[in-house]
Write the C-alpha cells for this entry.
Amino acid sequence: MQHPNVLMIICDDLNDYQGVFGGHPQAYTPNIDKLAASGVRFINAQTNIGLCNPSRNSLFTGIYPHQSRNFGLDKKTTQKLFKHNKTIMEQFSEKGYYVMGSGKLLHSNIKDLWDEWGVDINNYGPFAYDGEKQVGHPSVPQPFRSIGDIDGSFAPLSDIPGFSDDEVKGDKAGWVYSGKSGKVFNYFDETNRDLVPDELHARWAAKRIREMDAQTDTKPFFMGIGFVRPHTPLYAPRRFFDMFPIEDIQLPIIKKDDVSDTYYKDNYPVERSSDDRWYTNTSKGQMYSKLLTESYGDEQEGLKHFLQAYLACVAFVDEQVGIVLDALGKSRFADNTIVILTSDHGWQMGQKQYLFKNSPWENSTRIPLVFKVPGHNAGTELQQPVSLVDIYPSLIDMCKLGENNTKDVNGLPLGGYSLLPLIESASSEDWEGPEGALTAIATDIVDYSLEAQTFSYRTHDFRYIMYPHGQEELYDLKNDPNEWYNVAADTSFENHLFNLRTQVKNLITSNQ
C-alpha cells in the first residue's frame, strides 16, 4: 500500500485495564481485545509524560517533552512547538490525505489542522449541576466530592444529581452537557436519554466511514477519534456499572507503606491550598488517595467504589471503539487502513498510596498500544519498550509521508523511531531506537531546565527513576513486577544503575 488510510483512536487516562493487556482481571474490553488479536500489541508501551496536554502535544508532533520543554500546561512552549514543527495532521494533509477528526485529540483542539471536524461539544460531559455551576456529584461522599466537578465525581447516569434545599441554586439542578452553556442533558431511562459525547463521536465516525464507503473518491484519509473516558468524571450508563458489583470488585494488590522507600514524596510534598482545593498536578495522586480513604472511612472500600466506576467507563469506551471498528470492518477500507489504538497515559489505582496519573511508576506510565497494519503479523505481542513519540515516525514510514517534520530552521528533530521494523519482524533486534522508553513527570511549575525535571525510564528488565535533586529509584522488574522494592542503594545493582543513568542522560542530551 503506497498511501494507506489511517484510523487513530485515542482514549483518555486509559491504563492497561483491558483483557489483552492483563492490567485487571475483571476488565471487559472485547472490542479492544479483538483489535489486538488482528494486529500487533506493544505490551511495554509507555507515555512520554503523565499529563494530557503535554502528552498529546508530544504524540502529534513526535517531539519529546524534554526537547520542547513542554512539561505542563504552559501555553508558551505549546505555541512555540506548533509554530516550528508540523503536526502529523499537517504531514498527512501535505501528502493529499483528507484529514478529519472528532473528540479529544489535542488537549485543546486546533480545528484549522483538520479538513473536517466532527462533533463540537464539551468532551467531559455530562456534569452534575446544582442550578448555578458544575459540581461534584452529590452521591460521592465528602471530602472526596470537594475535589470538584471532574476529578471528584463518579456515578451511573441513572443517578440523576439531586441536591438538598440548601445546596440547590435555582430550579435547574440535574445533568448538563456544560454548566457554561446551560445545555441540559436529558435522562429519562437507559433507553430514553441524550447521548454522551463519546457516543456522539463514535457515531459520527461510523457514519462518515459509511458515507465515504458509498463514494467513488479514492483520496486516502486520516481519521482521528478521541474518546474522553475513562477520564474523570467517571459517568457511564447504569448497565456498565452493573457489570461490576461492588461486593465482587477485585482490588489491585497494594503493599502497605509501599511509598516509604521512594523519593517521590520528598520532591512533590502533599500540600493543600487556602481555598481548600487540591491544586498541584504533582501531588494530586497522594491527596486523592487520602481523601478517598477519608470519605469512605476505609481505603479498600473507597477504592472499590472508584474502581467500579473506572472499570465501567473502560467497558463503556470499549463499546464506542467497537462501533467505529465495526463500521470500518464492513467497509471497502477494511484491508487498506492502518488502525492505531492508544491512550495519552495510564492511571494509578492506589498503588504506593497514589490515585491519579502523572506518577513515575508503571501503572501511570504504561499505556495500551495496538497497531493493525494490513498484511503484517496479526496477533503478535512485542516486548520491546516503546512510547507515544514513536507513532509519528511510524506513520511517516508506513504512509510514505517524507522526512520534513519542521516548518523552519527552529523546528526540532523527531524524537522517536519507526515501529515498522518491529512490526515486520517481531524482533527487537531490528529496533533502531533506545533500549527503554522515557517518561517525564509533568509539573505546573514553569521551569524549563532539564535539571529540574523527574524522568522515569522503562526497559524490559528495569525501571529507573531520576529525580531533580539526585535521588534515584531502581526496580528489578524480573523479580519485582509490582515495583515494591527500590534497589537503588543495593550495591549488587550498581552496574545496572550506572548503565541506566547513562542511557537516560544520553537520551535527553542527544536529540536537542
